[in-house]
Amino acid sequence: GNSVTQMEGPVTLSEEAFLTINCTYTATGYPSLFWYVQYPGEGLQLLLKATKADDKGSNKGFEATYRKETTSFHLEKGSVQVSDSAVYFCALYNQGGKLIFGQGTELSVKP
Amino acid sequence: EPEVTQTPSHQVTQMGQEVILRCVPISNHLYFYWYRQILGQKVEFLVSFYNNEISEKSEIFDDQFSVERPDGSNFTLKIRSTKLEDSAMYFCASRGDRGGTDTQYFGPGTRLTVL
C-alpha cells in the first residue's frame, strides 16, 4: 500500500543553519508529493509540491526534489530562521483522492 | 486569497453526546475531505465527498460518523455518540480539480475534547 516515512524529530537548529528533513515513500504508480507546514496553534499550510519525477518544488527558501529512483522527497533550506519553527509533514496523493501523511517532524530554530 | 474556514475552533463535549463540526470550503471547489490528528500522531484521512456523496472513507469512519453538505457552502462532520478516543484535531480540506489540480487546502482545524 501507500505510505510515507519521515525522519523523527524534534530537530533543533541554530538560526542560519542548513536544514534537511528526510522523507521517503512507498506507492504504486506515480504519486504527487507534498510538504505541508503546521505553525504552532494553526492548521496545515501547503509549503510546496512536485507532481512528477525530477520536479523540484520550492517556496519561501524551502526546496524538495522528487526522486523516483530513491523514492524520496527530502525537504531542504539553506538558512533557517526562528520563524521556521513548526511541524513539517510530508504527504503523497495517488489518485485515490486522499492524502497520506508522514508522522511529522518538529523543527525548533534557536536564535 | 480564498481559504477554508472551520467552526468552532475548540469544542468540549461529554462522552456520548453528539457533535457537529462545521467547515466552509473554498467556494469553487468540488472535493471535500475530513482528516483528524490525535495529539502527537500523524494526520489521518477520514472521508472524502464529491457530488453530494461519500467517495471514500477510512476504517475510522464508522457508523458513528456522517458528513453532509446541507447547502452550497457548508460541509459538516457529525459524530453521533462521542467516545474519549474521538478527542483530536479535525481538519477540513477542499480541492478544485478542474483540470486535474491535486492540491488540497486545509482549514485551521477544530480541536475536539471529549470528557
Describe, in short, the structure shown.
With 111 residues, chain A is mainly beta. Helices cover 0% and strands 51% of the residues of chain A. In chain A, the strands form three sheets. In chain A, strands 2, 5, 6, 10, 11 and 12 form a six-stranded mixed β-sheet that branches. In chain A, strands 3-9-8-7 form a four-stranded antiparallel β-sheet, with no helix packed on it. Chain A has a two-stranded antiparallel ribbon with strand order 1-4.
Q: How does this model look, in words?
A:
The complex is a heterodimer of chains A (111) and B (115). Chain A starts with a strand and ends with a strand. Helix content of chain A is 0%, strand content 51%. Chain A has 111 residues and is mainly β. Chain A is globular and about 45 Å long. Chain A has no helices and 12 strands. In chain A, a hairpin with a 5-residue loop joins strand 10 and strand 11. In chain A, the strands form 3 sheets. In chain A, strands 2, 5, 6, 10, 11 and 12 form a 6-stranded mixed β-sheet that branches. Chain B has 115 residues and is mostly beta strands. Chain B is built from no helices and 11 strands. In chain B, strands 2, 4, 5, 6, 9, 10 and 11 form a 7-stranded mixed β-sheet that branches. In chain B, strands 1-3-8-7 form a 4-stranded antiparallel β-sheet, with no helix packed on it. In chain B, a hairpin with a 6-residue loop joins strand 7 (65-68) and strand 8 (75-79). Chain B is globular, with a radius of gyration of 13 Å. Chain B starts with a strand and ends with a strand.
Q: Oligomeric state of the chains?
A: heterodimer
| Helix share bin of chain A | under 10%
Helix-strand sequence of chain B: EEEEEEEEEEE
**Helical amount of chain B:** under 10%
Distance between the termini of chain B: 37 Å
Supply the helix-strand structural class of chain A.
Answer: mainly beta
E-strand count of chain A: 12
Rg from Cα of chain A: 13 Å
Secondary structure class of chain B reads: mainly beta
Low-confidence stretches of chain B: none
Give the overall silhouette of chain A: globular
> For the CA atoms, what is the radius of gyration of chain B?
13 Å
Continuous helix count of chain B? 0
Biggest pleated sheet of chain B? 7 strands, mixed
Mean pLDDT of chain B: 92
Largest interface: A-B, 22 and 24 residues
The averaged pLDDT of chain A comes out at 93
